[in-house]
Write a structure and sequence with these properties.
The protein has about 350 residues and is an alpha/beta fold. The chain is about 45% helix and about 20% strand.
């Protein structure tokens, strides 16, 4: 039997727990609060933290049940410690510490973004380094060179908004409820992506020209909707969505391919919630095939927030032996650059 890890993830609005054995997912439970927050148009931190508190024990029990293992059989307990909403993170960290303490198990403190990168280590994708990883999520957009899963190296990142943030804000302008990603994608399917020309941010900036910028495209959509007026927007919603989605996806694909070319790696991966987007998945696949690159695209459920990816990152993170972890804490932010704990 391989390393059996129970992982907990509560950094934003998903209460998640998973059991992973080596590279194999034995269970992966996600209780989403998205509906709870949609009336507010976004995640309300205090509401998220309180809801994690009422849900987390049941989610952990369910993950153990689904995997058919007891807490005593688990080798290590892993938890997301940063970055995210501090109240939300604290619920996961306190739960994991309590379980590890009671069961006499080591604890692994994991960085959420390390999890998004490590998701493609899991079966059936099971990607081995070296590769370039694109992580595009609600709060982050970055490229890392992964020579070793233990220490991804930052190549470029957004200088303003994250891709997911731009998607959610754009969706809101088009009257799509939170979370905007899936709704924008569905609407875009009925529209023409060449109907509107939105700016593709930062053609080449940052060391190696691998940084991203999404503030401009968001403003361009705002101006376009103002110019069209209410009726115009209602008429052209699908075209606006398709053109906007394409303007967000294009730099992700371009820079990922450029980073792969520059670093000479044989493979690329995508991860984070935006990697659930069908257009991004298809365009990355197409561009990688043209170059003869292997492309690792995890299942959609492993792109959006989940705890299986936290267990994956835990495989490359030092365990803190019982009971030395009692002083460990959650952190709202990660240190600049690094994503491995
Ligand atoms: N099908 C989709 N198309 C485009 N975007 C999507 C899709 N599904 C989800 N998203 C976007 O993914 C983002 C959420 O990703 P994720 O859950 O990884 O973010 P987060 O955990 O809140 O942020 P971070 O990982 O940066 O801490 C949201 O912005 C959402 O709109
Ligand atoms: Mg995330």
């Amino acid at each position: 039997m391989g390393d059996l890890v129970l992982a907990i993830e509560t950094s934003c609005d998903e209460t998640a727990a998973a059991v992973v054995e080596g590279r194999a997912i034995r269970s992966n439970v996600v209780a989403s609060q998205a509906q709870l927050h949609s009336v507010y148009g976004g995640v309300v931190p205090e509401v998220a933290a309180r809801h994690h508190l009422t849900t987390v024990n049941a989610v952990v029990d369910r993950a153990l049940d689904d995997a058919g293992v007891g807490l005593d059989q688990v080798d290590r307990i892993a938890v997301t410690r940063r970055p995210g909403l501090i109240g939300a993170l604290l619920v996961g960290v306190a739960t994991a510490k309590a379980l590890a303490y009671a069961a006499g198990k080591p604890l692994v403190m994991v960085d959420h973004l390390h999890g998004h990168v490590a998701a493609c280590w899991l079966e059936p994708v099971a990607l081995d380094p070296p590769f370039v990883a694109l992580t595009a999520s609600g709060g982050h957009t970055r490229l890392d060179l992964v020579d070793d899963y233990a220490a991804p190296q930052l190549l470029g990142q957004t200088i303003d908004d994250a891709a997911g943030e731009a998607i959610d804000k754009g969706a809101r302008l088009l009257g799509i409820p939170y979370p905007g990603g899936p709704g924008l994608e569905a609407l875009a399917r009925e529209g023409d992506a060449t109907a509107f020309e939105f700016p593709v941010g930062l053609r080449s900036r940052g060391p190696g020209g691998l940084d991203f910028s999404y503030a401009g495209v968001k403003t361009a959509l705002l101006y376009a909707t103002r110019e069209l007026g209410e009726n115009g927007v209602a008429e052209r919603r699908a075209d606006l969505a398709a053109s906007y989605q394409q303007a967000i996806v294009r730099p992700l694909v371009d820079r990922l391919m450029r980073a792969a070319d520059d670093s000479g790696v044989p493979a690329v991966s995508i991860g984070g919630g935006v990697a659930a987007n069908g257009l991004l998945r298809a365009q990355v696949e197409g561009a990688a095939a043209e170059r003869g690159l292997r492309v690792a695209i995890p299942d959609r459920a492993l792109c959006t927030d989940n705890a299986a990816m936290i267990a994956a990152a835990a495989a490359f993170t030092l365990s803190i032996p019982w009971p030395d972890f009692v002083g460990e804490d959650a952190m709202a932010t990660a240190p600049p650059g690094g994503i491995a704990a």
